[in-house]
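HUMAN:
Sorry, I am quite new to this. Are you able to go through these amino acid letters and fold codes? The numbers rather puzzle me.
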Amino acid sequence: MGRLADDLAHLDAALKLFSPEIDLRTIRSKAHRVRNCFFRPGECQRMVLDIFREAQGAAVSSRQIGGALTARRGLEATTVVIEPMRKNAIGAVRRLQRTGTLVLAGRDGHGATWAVG
């Protein structure tokens, strides 16, 4: 434990060496993402793009995307399974929205819908 405290003190000193005015209390710890067990890296986004490709320009909601992802994986379509799929889909859709690939198309009775931009 003492060695780790010494290492941290050395890091603090190195930061102060390059930027003396830095307030070390403002440095946040690195957030560690917890990967899900449904998809490999990048696979969910590719599947979401396939779903929009098959929709042929129609607006698709996160609930529809979650159901389609569940069906593609061959999983039982229960709320316990669809909800994490929907959350993964929303993350992928937001990344695609930032790049301009998808745009917010409006809202349906269950939430937002997106379409290819």
About this structure: Residues 79-98 form the longest helix (20 residues). The chain has a mean pLDDT of 88. The domain at 43-116 is CATH 1.10.10.10 (Arc Repressor Mutant, subunit A). The longest strand covers residues 102-108.
